[in-house]
Design brief:
- The complex is a heterodimer of chains A (about 300) and B (about 290).
- Chain A is mainly α and about 300 residues long.
- Chain A is built from 12 helices and 2 strands; from the N terminus they run αββααααααααααα.
- In chain A, helix 2 packs across helix 12 and helix 9 runs antiparallel to helix 12.
- Chain B is an all-alpha fold and about 290 residues long.
- The longest helix of chain B is centred in the first third of the chain and has 39 residues.
- Chain B starts with a helix and ends with a helix.
- The relative contact order of chain B is 0.14.
- The chains are: A mainly alpha (about 300), B mainly alpha (about 290).
- The interface between A and B is large, with 89 and 91 residues.
């Protein structure tokens, strides 16, 4: 009896050791890659730190943030970018998901093509679009000129009025397939007999879409919108490659502005300003949090109304 | 009545045709940038610099690839990309299956807390700033001389989604399997290794694809870590460095070839496994 219990205990501790060992990598990753940087940021919020020496500066960073027109400009551009992206990408993705759901020739191939941009690195797609949008020898201007749609080349990436258009086109291209897929999954979960009975009742395609698909999709739509909003606020990689935030900060979004502060812009002599960048990161995370909270509040209120 | 029906259906057939043509046109627009860069990589540099509306090269040449391979270190970049992507994939697979199994099958103190920490830090995003402390840490422990640090950080920051996928999948497996194996004398680890792991194959395929893509497409992280070390750069960074080099105009053809090398392997993998990619993306988003 005693032996048996002993044996059981040995196995128990052995299994516990195995559990601990198997969990070690993920816990280490969590601690090193997620928690440590998060705490580290707060350590430097009140410092002037260039990567080598750190000086305590009290509230100077905070004061600087309040008066930093370039930063608040980048915040506004982030909102602008997110708005443009969502306005085009969500309806487009939704309509395509609905249309693909109606059986049509080659719908699987089409779906595969629409989703394809999401597997390409955003840095590479930024680069590809910088070639397409090139003013002098870009193919877009070439095509538009030969169709006589424009008289002189459009300055897609160097014109104040055009750069956001270019950035939005790239963002929609790179992301709509992803959201289309979310909607497709949502549509597939709507029971077939709902559509059957709508058909029997004589509903046409438009009615079916607005009276059945859209309302039944609203839980999915809410999640997708949430993912899309938070995603759009975090985009900066592709913009960094496409336009570098220019011209004159016109396409500078907040996370790109912060990146430039923390790691320095290429071909510039200004030192990294990590302490200030850390404070702005906290602010940026806070802004994203607020936007998410407002969105959740509004969508819940809408639930009560509808 | 009959006639009316006929007219309606003819109209709707036309409508469907128009919709289909629009959809095909959209598919063309979607694939156009990729075709443009791939065909462009076979053009001569002079042709690229003139521009115009031709997508197909006037004269097909391979010089861009030869130049990219010889002058611009693309052989090294390619090896680095393969190393980075494979490394992230293997570590993600090992780590997420083990953690997912433990989270699903084992009770221990602080499990809920730990799990909620994983969830929490998936949503807290402070952007690129978090790379800075990791970079300084890597320098301090002298791990900035190889790509291993990039592999570890990439796998570490992406792990939560994969762990959730595995945990969900193990949850769906009957516990009787574990019990039976235990009665046969299997230890906790042996149950994982001999029973659970073989059953996890479908979800492992998804994780393998997603994590390989993640490693292959990683940009900001290797950019920061290889700022001063050209020999460690993966393709994404190497190609973009050419663009920033200043004499950009001269090297358009090399950049086209480089971008092609950077996207074609992923495209081939995607063509073969597109179904896994799509299912992985949706389950990952819903479960996460």
């Amino acid at each position: 009896m005693g032996m048996k219990q002993n044996k059981k205990r040995v196995r128990f501790t052995k299994d516990s050791a195995a559990t601990a060992l198997m969990l070690t990598p993920s816990v280490l990753f969590l601690a090193v890659c997620s928690i440590y940087p998060f705490i580290w940021i707060f350590r430097y919020v009140c410092y002037d730190y260039n990567g080598f020496t750190a000086n305590y500066t009290g509230t100077r960073n905070l004061m600087r943030m309040m008066n930093d027109k370039a930063f608040w400009g980048s915040v506004i551009h982030t909102f602008e970018y997110a708005l443009y992206k969502l306005v085009f990408i969500i309806p487009l993705a939704l309509v395509i998901a609905v249309l693909l759901n109606a059986k049509m020739r080659g719908s699987n191939v089409l779906r595969g093509i629409y989703f394809m941009p999401t597997i390409i690195s955003t840095s590479i797609s930024g680069m590809i679009f910088s070639f397409i949008f090139a003013t002098k020898n870009g193919i877009l201007n070439g095509v538009l000129m030969s169709l006589n749609l424009i008289q002189s080349p459009v300055k897609w990436l160097t014109g104040m009025d055009w750069v956001m258009v270019a950035v939005t086109i790239m963002a929609v291209w790179g992301g709509f397939g992803n959201y289309m897929l979310y909607f497709t999954t949502g549509i597939n979960s709507i029971a077939e007999d709902v559509y059957e009975s709508a058909k029997i009742d004589g509903a046409n395609t438009t009615q079916t879409f607005f009276r059945i698909t859209l309302p039944m999709l609203s839980p999915v739509l809410k999640v997708v919108l949430m993912l899309a909003i938070t995603g759009a606020f975090k985009d900066y990689e592709a913009i960094m490659v496409l336009s570098k935030g220019g011209p004159g900060n016109r396409s500078m979004v907040m996370f790109l502005y912060i990146y430039n502060l923390i790691f320095g812009t290429p071909n510039s002599t200004t030192q990294a300003q990590i302490g200030y960048g850390a404070l702005l990161s906290v602010m940026a995370a806070f802004i994203v949090g607020i936007v998410t909270a407002i969105y959740m509040f509004v969508s819940r209120k809408l639930d009560d109304v509808v | 009545m009959e006639k009316g029906h006929g007219v309606y259906s003819a109209r709707s057939r036309v409508l469907r045709g128009v919709v289909w043509i629009l959809m095909v046109f959209l598919a063309f627009l979607t694939i156009f940038p990729v075709l443009y860069i791939v065909f462009g990589s076979f053009k001569q540099n002079a042709e690229l610099l003139v521009g115009g509306t031709n997508m197909l090269p006037v004269k097909w040449v391979l010089t861009s690839y030869i130049d990219a391979w010889k002058q611009a270190n693309f052989a090294i970049y390619t090896v680095n990309s393969i190393f980075l992507a494979t490394g992230v994939m293997i570590i993600s697979l090992l780590n997420s299956t083990m953690a997912g199994y433990v989270f699903s099958r084992r009770q221990f103190k602080g499990k809920e807390l730990l799990y909620s920490l994983f969830v929490m830090f998936m949503f807290i995003n402070v952007g690129s700033v978090s790379i800075r402390p990791l970079f300084e840490l890597a320098v301090k422990i002298k791990m900035n001389k190889s790509l291993w640090s990039v592999v570890f950080i990439s796998a570490g920051t992406g792990q939560a989604t994969y762990i959730f996928l595995c945990r969900g999948f193990v949850n769906s497996l009957p516990r009787e399997l574990d019990e039976a194996a235990k009665i046969d004398g299997c230890s906790f680890f042996q149950v994982y290794y001999l029973i659970i792991l073989p059953l996890l194959k479908p979800v492992m395929a998804t994780i393998a694809l997603l994590s390989f893509r993640q490693g292959w497409n990683e940009y900001i992280l290797p950019l920061v870590f290889t700022m001063t070390n050209d020999k460690l750069r993966p393709l994404t960074v190497g190609v973009n460095m050419l663009k920033n080099a200043g004499d950009g105009a001269a090297a358009w053809n090399i950049m086209f070839a480089g971008a092609t090398i950077a996207i074609v392997p992923m495209l081939v993998i995607y063509c073969i496994f597109s179904r896994y990619f799509m299912s992985g993306m949706t389950t990952g988003a819903v479960k996460g």
